[in-house]
Amino acid sequence: MATLSLQALTKRYDNGVPAVNAVSLDAADGEFIVIVGPSGCGKSTLLRLVAGLETVSGGRVVIDGAVVNDREPGNRDIAMVFQNYALYPHMTVAGNMAYGLRNRRVPKPEIAAKVRRAAEILELTELLERRPAQLSGGQRQRVAMGRAIVREPKVFLFDEPLSNLDAKLRVSMRVEIKRLQRRLRTTAVYVTHDQVEAMTLADRLVVMNRGVAEQIGPPLALYERPATVFVAGFIGSPAMNLLPAEWDGRFARVSPHLALALPGLGAPPGPLTLGIRPEHLGLEGGAAAAVELVEPLGADTLVHVRLADGPLLVARAAAAPAPDAPLALEMPLARLHLFDAAGNRIPWEAPSAALEARPCRPVA
Amino acid sequence: MVENRPFLGLIRHTVLIAGVLLLALPVWLAFVASTQEGGRLLSGDVTLWPSGHFLQTYGAVLFEGMRSAGVPPVGRMMLNSLAMAVLIAVGKIAISLLSAFAIVYFRFPLRKTIFWMIFLTLMLPVEVRIVPTFQVVAGLGLLDSTAGLVLPLIASATATFLFRQFFLSVPPELAEAARIDGAGPMRFFADILVPLSRTNIAALFVILFIYGWNQYLWPFIATTDEAHYTVVMGIQRMVAVPDSEPIWNLVMATAILGMLPPVAVVVAMQKLFVKGLVDSEK
């Protein structure tokens, strides 16, 4: 039961390049924070700074009101689950779970009771005397979780804990982790590159890019109002369609044959990025387009559409259109995301009058 | 591919059996010689089968030694050899484990340089540095003592290098997990690294025990007191008798006895030995 606060946390390696650059974050007691980003974005480094496995170059890590920058990982009251589990190969499951408690000189009967309780929660009771080598991947993963929960730490840290599992197991372990965290009400920081995991697990999501936290917020808020082009492109699968355009004060010109009127947009003329999610693209009425590829997923279908001599877009449709049939693409203005040349979101609400007039038809 | 054809199998076995015979013959001859009467070997009349003086010869060697050559009972020398070999093996392993631990897990100035310096000592076996080593040991007043026998041989670059390679192959997350579990460096070393190195330690023990047991030059230089003679030295003393013929049956009996402990160690530890050299438990 504790809060976690990162204050302008920075990690600079010897070559001077900041791996983590002034990340600030306040996690409430019991909150599940997920840090997501492409590889090399500094998300694992951030987690290791919290754990104390890397030294902090600037800023502070505060756990439960105490600055822990200079504390050894063992004295921070945290527990960590590693990607490759990092179980001690020569110890039994029970030994692995008990090791942290033994080092803290917890009395033996108490250790045994705690290990038993954790094993019950994770359904590991039958396996307590086995060695890690005799366990399956999913079981090892659960032991790694068990090692974290017996300690009853203030903060759980997860470093891509599911990426070594097969797809099916990953989904079920994901649910299990979420249920466990809800049950224990322990503050957790979870690092992943998988945006589905991130969306489903997080109370709040931190999207990182090049060492910077691009946006922090609840998953759906990030999905609906991404603050930058990067977040827009990273969150959501398939990714948001991002179209470079030229804004002249009245129209956003996407291609020689396609321009959108954006009434009420006060931005100065210049380059612009239009974003629209695949599920918001309509396939009836609008700009002429041709189907290039159809990916049926069962529940719905992904249609790759090319605008007349223009860019390629992905639409999510209920049914597959006939291949090579001419198509008209509709972009509802209310669903449009606008970003400036620097990649930041331009606040813009499509005026209701404009919506009624369906101005999204292309202007030749 | 391992092929399995009867004809090839026959050839294979013929070659292997011939090899075994070739290697075993000298040992067998030594054993046969040790059961003969003293003078008979010098007459050139050698048989291939043991004769009846087994108990007599071995009893004499084990409990009396060879007074004429100034050699104490073999039992005594075996104990000396055992102490020296075990201390050398254990000491080498302990020191190498610790130095490999320091080199792999700690960042300190000149780490690389120190590693290469340790590595360079591979080029300086006792035979090369024997004069200065003798001077140092003599200066410390350790001649004619077990410590003097063991200490100059106790550092091992080979073992350090082996353990370093093994530690490098241990996933770094294990060290991090141990840190999070509140284990300090020495605790991590004792609780996790050493148990993981178990098979490597066993394999090295076998090699180093035999190395220690077979030491010849250093004990020969560093001990003059009969009470500290090792078996290997004892044999040398028996052969190099002044003004008379060596008593070959006693020499051979001593050699046979001297061979037994290394054989016992190899036989007892062969499973761990092979495992330690072949696979890593991860």
**What is the multimeric organization of the chains shown?**
heterodimer
Which class do the helix and strand fractions of chain A yield?
A: alpha+beta
Query: What's the N-to-C terminus distance of chain B?
Result: 26 Å
Number of helices of chain A: 9
Q: At the first level of CATH, what is the class of chain B?
A: Mainly Alpha
Helix content of chain B: 55-70%
Number of strands of chain A: 19
Rounded to an integer, what's the Rg of chain A over CA atoms? 25 Å
Radius of gyration of CA atoms of chain B, rounded to a whole number: 23 Å
| CATH-level-2 architecture of chain B | Orthogonal Bundle
Largest sheet of chain B: none
The CATH superfamily title of the largest domain in chain A: P-loop containing nucleotide triphosphate hydrolases
How would you describe what is shown here?
The complex is a heterodimer of chains A (about 375) and B (about 280). With about 375 residues, chain A is α+β, with helices and mostly antiparallel strands. Chain A folds into 2 domains: about 5-235, Rossmann fold; about 240-355, Nucleic acid-binding proteins (OB fold (Dihydrolipoamide Acetyltransferase, E2P), Beta Barrel). Chain A contains 9 helices and 19 strands. Chain A has helices at about 45-50, 95-105, 110-120, 135-150, 165-185, 195-200, 220-225, 230-235, 350-355; strands at about 5-10, 20-25, 30-35, 60-65, 65, 80, 155-160, 185-190, 205-210, 210-215, 240-245, 250-255, 260, 270-275, 280-295, 300-305, 310-315, 325-330, 335-340. A 6-stranded mixed sheet of chain A has the order 6-7-8-3-9-10, sandwiched between helices. Chain A has a 5-stranded antiparallel sheet with strand order 13-12-11-14-19. A 4-stranded antiparallel sheet of chain A has the order 2-1-4-5, covered by helices on one side. The longest helix of chain A has 18 residues, at about 165-185. The N and C termini of chain A lie far apart (about 60 Å). The model of chain A is unreliable at about 355-360 (pLDDT under 50). With about 280 residues, chain B is mainly alpha-helical. Chain B has a single domain (about 5-280), classed as MetI-like (MetI-like fold, Orthogonal Bundle), CATH 1.10.3720. Chain B is globular. The longest helix of chain B has about 30 residues, at about 75-105. Chain B contains 13 helices and no strands. Chain B has helices spanning about 5-35, 55-65, 75-105, 110-120, 130-140, 145-150, 155-170, 170-180, 185-195, 200-215, 215-220, 230-240, 250-280. Chain B is about 70% helix and about 0% strand. The interface between A and B is medium-sized, with 24 and 20 residues.
